[in-house]
Design goal:
It is built from one helix and 15 strands. The protein is mostly beta strands and 350 residues long. Strand 1 and strand 2 form a beta hairpin.
Amino acid sequence: MPGFDVPGRDVPGPDTPSHAPTDIAAPVVDWAPPGAVRFAGGAPVALVAPGAGLTSLPAALGDMVTLRHVDLDGNALTTLPGWIARLERLRVLLLYGNRIGALPPELGRLVSLEHLGAGRNALTAVPDTLWRLSRLRSLVLAENEIADLPPGLGRLRELRMLDLGHNRLREVPAEIGDLPCLTDYLYLSDNGFTSVPASLGRLDRLGYLNLAENRLAALPAEIGGMTGLHELRVHDNRLTALPDTIGRLTGLRELHLRNNRLAALPESIGGLRALRHLDLRGNPLERLPDSVVRLTDLTHLDLRATRLATLPGGLAELPRLEKLDLRWVKLDEVPACVRPLRERGCVVLL
């Protein structure tokens, strides 16, 4: 989650001297920890009560209609009451690490909401009214038990970060490609889907994509359209090949492919000229394409537990290589590149 600015207690509040001007009399709050409610001009603007042991929310919270920021992470809440919709000015709502079983449909009336964090709860579904929150910039629903998403995700046109990791999603909705502002992160790791939609290729501004720990047998060719990617994680899947279009990701700096079923890589991988970290550990790779020697920015190459018998001789010419990991690789002989790499300071592990 991104950081958020929370109003401090240097603004007028309940301890303000009687001669200080206030716009609204500060209410008495006896259900939250001392200092949890922040005030501005006598009006509550933030509730910051992470780990406060709250098991329910008092109805009085619904009367604090001036609240803009509510942080209830790490409590023991089991429900989020529908009257939360009365907080029409709310911009940030953080509920991570509670026990909430369902989000109320009224949540869709919080039209000013920009950041919603409801990870690590007990959610099995989300209401379709969630997609009415058209100003959302970040949405975290990770570490729940969500199997399906209702139609309408593509309406979150201002969304920059989406975290759906560690759920039970059976498929990734094609509408995910309709999120033009998705630039920061997309987490889809540790679900159960076997494919991703071709529409991912329309996310050409996205910088980070995590598809790890699923059951993917292939990536769509359209992934080559994700030209804004800096980091791609597809490790711990069932990939048997990469599309040739992978070479179009010319800004990619990290590619994590460990523990798949890749026996070969396309020659187009040599087009990843910005690549610094390439992790191929645990694949049944039998050879590396000669184009690997064009990865002149590469600093880390992990080839552990592959089936390589030889290496391209040009690896010794990679000017920035700092670590070459060849542990548990049954090479026919010590590759010729090992000695010159070690002599210039590269760590080579055999």
